[in-house]
Predict the structure.
Amino acid sequence: MAKTTSPRRSDASRARASQKRAAQRARVLKEVVADLERGRGTRAAKVFCNGQDHGLFPTGNGLPRWLLKSIGKEATGKLVDAFARFPCFYCENGLEPCETCNGRGTIADSLICEACAGLSVTRCGFCDGSGFVTNNVVPPGLRVVVLTERTNWASDRIKTLLQKPVPKGASTDPVKAAKRCAMQLLDLGRQMGVFENTVVAAKDLAQTHPRSKQKLAKLVGLCCQTAVDAQTRIWELAGQMSMCSKVQAEAPDVDESVRRRAERGAAFYESLAASKTLAGTALEHPYLQRAVAKLSRASRKRSRGEQ
């Protein structure tokens, strides 16, 4: 004869399981908060992800509200920030050595490597040069708020960079001036990588988070508008790098190999500045460029309609 479980025993078993899970949830949240308080944001994010993988936390769009109630506003803000700054698994700051030129910046006969634009590094293929993990690593319920935080951070960073003048000094120290231009160029490229990831992620999130469609559209608009200003600075930097190379090529007593590379660099960066395109280089972000072009077309169409 088959054994049967009494309703009381079944209810008691479920109650014990629920208590056990609640205790596990409390321990994990305590560890997350402790890591956040110690400034170990990446570890806190990993611990939280592990807890969610074990079904301890909500997975839906109500997760931010649940976190506010469970760990408070300050800790929730820190956790969102930790996911927004979660570093890419495969690179450092969105960059990796250029495979085309083996990190030299030039190929045969001192030709500037177009793949890395002579910078010796290219954007990481996993994070698209943003330096952060892609949005699908973030818990689903936090993806919109994390994307917003990350995009705003990149926008603020670009605005800070644009407040600074284009590095000068080509006539006095062209090598140092060119390096400063290159550093700013790479910094702008990283933020553009963040924007491109936002453009791609927003399209998917609009399907899974329909209530956030308007917010996501505004994020994409912010990316496109800020990217236009960033592109203008990129052309200015390329022009300044061309000038630095010209000065270096014309310097007396310069080694012939250095002169040849400088001449090639002057021509390359002058062409890059005049072409107004980054196609084929490490600084190209095609999805972002398409979004910018689409927004520009829509703006022109509205203008014609108003007239």
In short: The mean pLDDT is 91.
